[in-house]
Amino acid sequence: MQQGKWTQNLLSAAKVLSLLLVVIIGLTAIPNSATPVESASSGTWGLAMVFVLLSYGGWNEAAYISAEIQDGRRNIVRSLIWSIGIITAIYLLINLAYLRGLGLANMAQSEAVAADLMRSLWDQPGALFISVLIAIATLGATNATIFTGARTNYALGQDFSLFGFMGHWKQRPSSPTYALFLQAAIALALIFLGTLTRKGFETMVDYTAPIFWFFFLLSGISLLVLRIREPHIVRPFRVPFYPLTPLLFCAVCGYLLYSSLAYTGVGAIAGVLVVAAGIPLLLWNNYRQGRT
What we know:
The protein is an all-alpha fold. Helix content is 75%, strand content 0%. It has a domain of 144 residues. The chain is globular and about 70 Å long.
């Protein structure tokens, strides 16, 4: 256990160091006066927002481990608000550093912006150094995603008997082992899909983006429905400026769902088919529970 904490601390330190290094180097660099790029059309703007908001992803994953958070009524809200603020600040600082160090045109043409920024100042050793740091930091993010993602599969197994095999918690090593195995299989399938299409990361974003925004949209709608059906229930957290906030949230989610479906390729189709496959499974699960 102690070794795992040291490993996680090391990965987190690498992430912080890489972010600080890029921000400091970029903000202190001589501004790049590259020629401006053409403005994006409304269609490509919608697709760009899908990728931009993907950069903010992860703030919501604190809710996945809510059952394990002490004093959840207070700390879940605090963790979500702090995570959104920290991610927004980091994202803005990083992009300001890129704009100052490379310029908008060079950013648009770059396939590895951080490496190109370091290369412009410290040549190839700088690009190699930041690339290694980013790779190490990615391991930390992957580790956190594995833990939080498996919890959703575990909860699914407890709620639906058809997937009951995922709802078992192994005391050693104190984890939902079967849920982790299923998550690993899905991850490998996505990697295989990206390899077949030769677009890698973009294909996996195409796959996940429509699902991501569709379920966010359903979450916003469910809030509205529950407030109408059960208006007198005292809830631990009430949405400020209701109903304006959830209506605005649903509108944004609907637009990004449209953008992710309209401007992506085979990955989005595969994601929609996977979600559609859940409908007969849900009906079959309800049928089994009705017979017992």
